[in-house]
Amino acid sequence: MKTKYLILGAGPAGLSFANVLRQRGEENFTVIEKEAQAGGLCRSQDVDGSPLDIGGGHFLDVRRPEVCRFLFGFMPKDEWREYDRDSRIRFTPGFVPDADKREYEIHHPFEANLWELPENIQKPFLDSIAAAGCNAGQEMPEKFVDWISWKLGDLIAKEYMLPYNMKMFGDNLNALGTYWLEKLPNVSYEDTLKSCREKKAAGSQPGHAQFFYPKEYGYGELWLRMGKALGERLITGVSVTELSPADKRVTLSDGTVIEAEIIVSTVPWTSMKLTGVPQEITDAVSKLIHTSIEVTYHPEDMNTDAQWIYYPSNNMDHHRILVRGNFYEGAKGYWTETRTERYHAQAGDINFHMEYAYPVNTIDKPKAIDSILRYMKGCGVYGLGRWGEHNHYNSDATVELAMKLAKEL
Questions:
Q1: Which among 6, 25, 193, 400 is most buried, taking Cβ atoms within 10 Å?
Q2: How many other CB atoms are found less than 10 A from the CB of residue 213?
């Protein structure tokens, strides 16, 4: 079998790339997807009468209008509801006396909302921010753990950032690089103190400060429609087992061999065998690390207006929950997101496993993925999206990258 463009994976990256080709008049392309339906991490499933996003919480950010216009071509804007983000953090301060220990809830991000805590809890955090290395003129450290304290202060690091990242990525946080966090602004002691006095949030808004979510469906409905628009060019239920970049040829799990002029891979490089590549590329692929998650539904209603809540405490397996009734009207219950290694199954759990959930930003990842992408591009193979580029892109950023690459090619 031969095709001009061969697209591996029908998640947001592959679907967007393919549909831009189609809209620009290109008909000679094929999309391969191992699952039975399109959507990748953004798939949804009906659970207990309402949609649940089985790859964790995914939303459409409003900040990329060109992306939104493109996606509204498949699911019109009047089928979406717009929300202001309400995300929170629940934690129990470790520095208070045992007799005074209790759980507090503040809005995310932590440093911008210290004013929501009692004054006796605020002050230690403020003192810690004042002494943070980035505010004290200290040289930026190289190790992740030291860098977090340098950037945010020892107390925010200890009470929130470090335990939360350990739940997400494992105990050896110093295996992570700091390059993916360097765009974070310094936490200003003056601004934070002012916010505590004025009792309102300070600093920049986090991602998804405003977002869209479908009125009548889960987020996965958008990607199902985009898959349907591709017709027979989308082949589901088969996976890529082998890729020969130099020959621009792939072998599928059913034995089919496909040759292409251009291959766009949105699937993890570690998920398939690479043949005919230099040893340095094989070595680079072996350095790409990911985490898996378990998404578990709980039918109990939560008394909160938050759409999702972060939990740094090690006393519970999950690192965050999503309260679906607060972004999908009429839904009950909530779901938890837990790194697979921390998950303890309970009888009766309604649970979904997602093997490839988050690319891990290890120290040597930039060099490894750069060498992979440069070599592949020289062969006419392009990595795209969260897994093709091994970067934690949200879906809207992925769509933007796919639109750009499709127009370039």
A1: 6
A2: 23
